[in-house]
UniProtKB/TrEMBL annotation:
It comes from Ruegeria denitrificans. The keyword Coiled coil does not apply. One of its GO terms (molecular function) is NAD binding. It is an enzyme of class 1 (oxidoreductase). This is Glyoxylate/hydroxypyruvate reductase A. Residues 118-275 form the D-isomer specific 2-hydroxyacid dehydrogenase NAD-binding domain.
Length: 310
């Protein structure tokens, strides 16, 4: 009997992924059937993205795993109808894209690029930018994406501190962890990058108290998830000058409403959830590898710990 793989994602992605998954599953030597529609009790694997609309996994009686195309799994991790392994996306194309986006936005702040990009006033006032050495950047989240961004910034000589749930040892990065480490991580951060998952433990991690721990005028870059930030607290901190500028890629409600105060705020840059995305060529290989592993009885890669939500 063929391995039945159901593709449940935005319909426009099917024509992109169908040939890539077909190639990968063929190369894996599998007898398979890949489709966007299948009787639920026939499905072995679901290739999943939240905008595929699939919510109830109870009828999927022979399901072996759900394989997410997204790195962030907050929309499915708490789904109680899902009782089989859930794997998230770890894709080096996605990681490279995020590293480039984070480094670009850190450099914007570090070099004060806006001054010359937005003001061409005819005044010749040389004020060369500083070196990265000694510029304190703090990355909240040292997972696949956070660690890669931290390493890239450290390679440019930024003074990088990272913060995670568990202890880490990454050469060239000051690693802090747990609730006790957060205050220390934030207290010297001139630029803060959020690359945490959206879980009950990380919601509003930047709030009135933690924003007050930052040095005055610190800049925030959030490509993680909207709920990581208490929006009212951030707006108040921007208005008081406690936070100098924020670049926000993700929001509690997306698309961000046209009348949301972030759009109009002079010290906020909104980007429309484009920091990085799963790259089909590399991501399809990850999906196929996990299906191959499942069929060979091997442990799946990139499993989500459902109790932690990431
Ligand atoms: P990982 O799961 O690899 O890393 C998550 C990191 O967050 C880990 O270092 C983890 O700590 C840390 N963490 C989790 N919970 C806590 C906590 N309570 N306290 C402190 N640290 C915590 O995720 P990725 O790096 O792959 O992705 C991070 C997020 O980036 C995704 O969840 C998603 O929301 C977002 N994303 C955004 C995109 C965009 O375009 N804007 C694109 C892709 C992803 P530990 O290492 O100890 O487990």
């Amino acid at each position: 009997m063929p391995v039945n793989v159901l593709f449940s994602a935005r319909p426009a992605l099917w024509s992109i992924y169908e040939p890539l998954l077909t190639k990968g599953l063929t190369e894996a030597g599998l007898d398979f059937r890949l489709s966007t529609e299948c009787e639920p009790d026939q499905v072995d694997y679901v290739v999943y993205a939240p905008n595929g609309g699939l919510l109830d996994f109870i009828p999927f009686t022979r399901l072996k795993a759900v394989l997410s195309l997204w790195a962030g799994v907050e929309k499915i991790a708490g789904n109680e109808t899902l009782t089989v392994p859930l794997a998230r996306m770890v894709d080096h194309g996605l990681t490279q894209g995020m590293t480039e986006w984070v480094v670009g936005h850190v450099l914007r702040y570090h070099l004060g690029m806006d001054r010359h990009i937005t003001v061409q006033d005819g005044i010749w006032a040389p004020d060369p930018p500083p070196l990265a050495t000694g510029r304190q950047v703090c990355i909240l989240g040292l997972g696949e994406l956070g660690e890669a961004a931290a390493r890239a910034l450290a390679a440019l000589n930024f003074d990088v501190t990272g913060w995670s749930r568990t202890a880490k040892d990454i050469p060239g990065i000051t690693c802090l962890h747990g609730p006790d480490g957060l205050g220390t991580a934030l207290s010297q951060a001139e630029i803060v990058v959020l690359l945490l998952p959206d879980t009950p433990a990380t919601e509003n991690i930047l709030n009135v108290e933690t924003l007050a721990m930052l040095p005055k005028g610190a800049c925030i870059i959030n490509p993680g998830r909207g709920p990581l930030i208490d929006d009212d607290a951030l707006l108040a901190a921007l208005n008081s000058g406690q936070v100098g500028h924020a670049t926000l890629d993700v929001f509690r409600v997306e698309p961000l409403a046209a009348d949301h105060p972030y759009w109009a705020h002079p010290n906020v840059t909104v980007t429309p959830h484009i920091a990085s995305e799963t790259r089909p060529e590399t991501a399809a290989q990850v999906i196929c590898e996990n299906i191959r592993r499942g069929e060979e009885g091997k442990p799946f890669l990139h499993l989500v710990d459902r109790s932690l939500g990431y």
